[in-house]
Structures are given as structure tokens and as C-alpha cells.
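Example record for the data management plan.
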Amino acid sequence: MKYYLIVGEASGDLHASNLMKSLKRHDSEAEFRFYGGDKMAAVGGTLVKHYKELAYMGFIPVLLHARTILHNMELCKKDIVQWNPDVVILVDYPGFNLKIARFVHEQTSIPVYYYISPKIWAWKEYRIKNIKRDVDELFSILPFEIDFFEKKHHYPIHYVGNPCVDAIQNYLNEQNAKASHPSANANPSDHKTIAILAGSRKQEIKDNLSIMLRAAAKYPDYKLMLAGAPNIEPEFYQQYIPAGIQVDIQFGKTYEILRQSVAALVTSGTATLETAILRIPQVVCYYTPLGRFISFLRSKILKVKFISLVNLIVNREIVRELVADTMKEENIVKELGSILPNGEKRQQMLADYEVMNRILGPAGASERAGKMMTELLREKARRTPNS
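Corresponding structural encoding:
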């Protein structure tokens, strides 16, 4: 069968590549064409557009690149129609993907599958109408989404587990298979490193990195390691590193950096969940200009109490979230100290991580999703033999 996948950022590239591997295991004749990244390209198929040409965030960047975004969207629509796949698989990235879903639904008979569902439980809940209308099958990776979609909105979904568990388990298996690798059997407590994960987009890095580094530097006994985002050039980071602060920047090694660290400062996103799965105590840091105003809007617009997936999964605060007006250097210094070795919050956070990981469930999300997708497509083909 022919699979057309659309991804808009680095995390989607990772999870879509693992999904593609599963699809190949369950469909020996699988063909792929995609908007994606290097990890997907390594699995095989045709890369039509790299996600680096799509990843614009915020009102101003989107406005400035509107022509490029519209061009890429029109190209995607035409390419789907021309290739005529058996299914279009959308991966997160709702601003772009929901428009593609509507086009495919209205203009073709191709089924639309959504893997890693849009986070409409946080905001823009009105998008449920679009999802019900345009998405044939939705595959959820967060356990609390079951109640949201099925009980609240009467829209059946498939919970397959979380692919971050898969990605980290695969990484750990690879490391353990390399007996000579220095981190193969590393014990994080043996290291004196603080990890800095400042986001995957330029605006996030601009807003957060400097203050995160200044706060972490208050603990001079610890080495600072910054996980560079794969779509950001190294030179971009340099302008936001305060003078006199030493930080080791490494790209494509987020898991390695976390495993070598005793604690982490993390800008909210998938990284908060990955840090928790790896059992590294963390402080969530997300600065925005006009902090008090943004905090006010957050209380009025957001439908959830927390911004980190870690807290959302357990439905209580187990990692401290410093957001908008609370994202201050002195607050980061205090919270970081509480989770470093011998800090008063460290052991409780580690215990809470175990609760979160039990709720997430075991590895195998990508495998379950791939198997389910191929079975659904074969069932559809059996029902419509002349299609």
C-alpha cells in the first residue's frame, strides 16, 4: 500500500520514522512519500519537503512566511492527488495538517489518519468539529485524551501508548548493546552535569536560553550541557549565551545529555515528557514577554491547569512549572536547587515519575499504531473491493 505522511517538526520526524518501520513490518509492499525529515528519509521513500521549510511558530513568523507556507500547502495538496495514496497519515502539526485533512476529505476518497492527535484539549477545542468531519481514524498517544474525545465529544479514538517510550527504549537498547560505549551503563548520579533544553524553535530559544543559563550557572560545581535542536544552526545559540558562562552545546544527543545529567531545565513540550521517562528531575521553564498579561490570558484561554505533559498525565503538579511572569532567574535557582542531589524535592519527583510511567504504559506505541493502521486499511479494502 501507499502511505503519504506529513510532519512539521523534529519530534514528528522521529515518531513518524518509527511508525514507518512498523508499517513496513506489517506491509511488505509499503511505499512512502512524505513531508518530513532525515529520520523518515533514512527509513525509505520520497521526501517531498523537509520540515525545516514548514516550522514557523508565532503570529509574526507565520505572517512573514505566509507566501512560503501557502505554497507548500498547495504543493502538498497537488502531490497527494497526483500520487493517490491508500491513506494520508498526519502527524501532529495541526495548523497545517487540519487544512490538508479538510482538502483530502472534500476533494478525494482517500482516508485520513491522524497520528499524535492535535492538543485541542488545551486550546482551540472548536477544532473537534473539523476532526469529526475530516479525520477517519485518530490515534492518541496520551491516556487522558480517551475521556476527552470519547466521553466529552463522543468521537472514538485509538489509544496506542506513547512513542516517546519507544524512542527512549530503542536508544537504551542501542546503548546497552555497545559495551565499549562510555554511556552504555552510565549511572546519571555519577555525573555533575545540568542539562539545558531550551526548545526546538528560535523564538523559544531567544526567550528562554539566556535566563536558563544564568540560573544554572549559580551552581558552579556543575557542568552545563545544552541540547541543540536539529533544525537550528549552531551560530544562532551563541548570541544568547551570557558572557562568562561556559556551556557545551551538542546536537542530536538529547538523550545522551539527559542521561549524563543529575537535573534539567526544560522548555515545555515533548522534552518534558522525555526527561521524565529518563527519570531526570527537572524544572519546566517557559518565558514569554508581557508575562503578567500572558498569565492572565492563560487563565482565560487554556482549558488545562498545566502546560507540561508530565503534570497533565498524572493530573497534578509533580514538576514545577515556571511560566510567563513566574519565569524569573531567582525562581529557577531556587527550584533547581531543590531537585539537585540532596535537594528536598528530588526523591519525591523521582517517585512521582514512576507513577507517570505506569500510567503511560509499556513501549510499543509505534508497533501498535502501524499494525492497527494496516489492519484498518485492509478491512476497508475488503469492504470496497472495487475501490
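Summary line stored alongside the record: The chain has 17 helices and 13 strands.
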